[in-house]
């Protein structure tokens, strides 16, 4: 009978779960180091549960970005939109090496970090479509999402780095042993404000991890054409640095743990360069193939895709089955579809909401006896 069959199947699944390797040791690529006597370990342990969690998170980020691409092309998402697909191992690896009570700030390619910091797919998608249920109530859009201990996407190139140093200064001031991770791209790496920040962070020994996500192109300009030195991990000069394989979640996790330990032990700031790659163009207005070839993109996808790399590791070490990972894919797809459905049906914020949340908690100030806010009424 059918129930007998499903019971048998259940037993089979339970048995096969028991047969899985619960943890395994992996050999990872050695980091290049600058001004450091030690380096992150090259032999690391990953448990089956961690592997499954990393896989689900990366797959969710990938699917979410592909859905955003689709909605953008349908003109449902408008304006600035920078996608993170290809770089998932950076976000998931960093989060694996710190805790949610640590702090993080990034540039405008921020959807992935909003998710790993605790935002939901539903809130992120609704923010992209500018709806009331968005994580910033539909007022921030793609580049301005925030949640606890996450100080957002920031639209001005490089501007988040000094802000991140400010957060690190607060960590030091409160003496709570927390660190702040400040992320920027290879395009922002030549910004003057970044070097000013390095100087202050080093002088004050701030618990700051500066992370350059080097995806090889700043907008449409390759790193070689933009930077006299492409050794971004050495550019802190007097600040120690690490160059890390940003396509391997375990490499990133191990390097982040190492960097966080460095900061927590009072040694001051540290730099990390994550060598990664974006599959999409710089933003949705950039087709991404005028300054690099389709073959180059395909080659990276084929040889060093972060999700495929993790999947292969788990399968070859008997840490998961193909069916189980497929099941996760199905669940993720459904979550994304439901979120997209919500993001396209949730109402937009009404006009009278426009000037709320400008002041911390008081209603807008009376200016010379006039209050322009009272005149805003939604007619739609």
UniProtKB/TrEMBL annotation:
Gene3D superfamilies: 3.40.50.970
Its EC number(s): 1.2.4.1
GO molecular function: metal ion binding; pyruvate dehydrogenase (acetyl-transferring) activity
Chain ranges of the Dehydrogenase E1 component domain: 56-351
Substrates-to-products reaction catalysed: N(6)-[(R)-lipoyl]-L-lysyl-[protein] + pyruvate + H(+) = N(6)-[(R)-S(8)-acetyldihydrolipoyl]-L-lysyl-[protein] + CO2
Keyword line: Carbohydrate metabolism, Glucose metabolism, Magnesium, Metal-binding, Mitochondrion, Oxidoreductase, Phosphoprotein, Pyruvate, Thiamine pyrophosphate, Transit peptide
GO cellular component assignments: mitochondrial matrix
Gene Ontology biological process terms in this record: glucose metabolic process; pyruvate decarboxylation to acetyl-CoA
InterPro entries: DH_E1, PDH_E1_Alpha_Subunit, Pyrv_DH_E1_asu_subgrp-y, THDP-binding
Keyword Zinc included in the entry's annotation: no
Subcellular location: Mitochondrion matrix
Co-factor(s): thiamine diphosphate; Mg(2+)
Function statement: The pyruvate dehydrogenase complex catalyzes the overall conversion of pyruvate to acetyl-CoA and CO(2), and thereby links the glycolytic pathway to the tricarboxylic cycle.
Protein name, UniProt field: Pyruvate dehydrogenase E1 component subunit alpha
Annotated organism of origin: Dicentrarchus labrax (European seabass)
Lineage of the species this protein comes from: Eukaryota, Metazoa, Chordata, Craniata, Vertebrata
């Amino acid at each position: 009978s059918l129930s007998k069959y499903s019971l048998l199947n259940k037993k089979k699944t339970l048995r096969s779960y028991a047969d899985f390797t619960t943890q395994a040791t992996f050999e990872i690529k050695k980091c290049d180091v600058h001004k450091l006597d030690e380096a992150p370990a090259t032999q690391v342990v990953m448990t089956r549960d961690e592997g499954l969690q990393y896989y689900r998170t990366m797959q969710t980020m990938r699917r979410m970005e592909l859905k955003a691409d689709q909605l953008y092309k349908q003109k449902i998402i408008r304006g600035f939109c920078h996608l993170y697909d290809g770089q998932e191992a950076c976000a998931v690896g960093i989060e694996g090496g710190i805790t949610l009570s640590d702090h993080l700030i990034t540039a405008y390619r921020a959807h992935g970090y909003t998710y790993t910091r605790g935002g939901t797919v539903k809130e992120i998608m609704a923010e992209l479509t500018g709806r009331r249920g968005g994580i910033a109530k539909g007022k921030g859009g793609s580049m301005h999402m925030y949640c606890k201990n996450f100080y957002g996407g920031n639209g001005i190139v490089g501007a988040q780095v000094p802000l991140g140093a400010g957060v690190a200064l607060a960590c030091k001031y409160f003496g709570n042993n927390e660190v702040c991770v400040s992320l920027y791209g290879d395009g922002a790496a030549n910004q003057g404000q970044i070097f000013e920040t390095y100087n202050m962070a080093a002088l004050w020994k701030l618990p700051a991890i500066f992370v350059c996500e080097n995806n090889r192109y700043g907008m449409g300009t390759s790193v070689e054409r933009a930077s006299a030195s492409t050794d971004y991990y050495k550019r802190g000069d007097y600040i120690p640095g690490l160059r890390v394989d940003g396509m391997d979640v375990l490499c990133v996790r191990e390097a982040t743990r190492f960097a966080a330990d460095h900061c927590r032990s009072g040694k001051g700031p540290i730099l990390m360069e994550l060598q990664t790659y974006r599959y999409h163009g710089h933003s949705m207005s950039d087709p991404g193939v005028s300054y690099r070839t389709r073959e180059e993109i395909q080659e990276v996808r084929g040889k060093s895709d972060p999700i495929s790399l993790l999947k292969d590791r788990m399968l070859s070490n008997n840490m998961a089955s193909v069916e189980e990972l497929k099941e996760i894919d199905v669940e993720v797809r459904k979550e994304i579809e439901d979120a997209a459905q919500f993001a396209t049906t949730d109402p937009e914020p009404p006009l009278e909401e426009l000037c709320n949340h400008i002041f911390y908690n008081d209603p807008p100030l009376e200016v010379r006896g006039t209050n322009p806010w009272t005149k805003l009424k939604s007619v739609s």
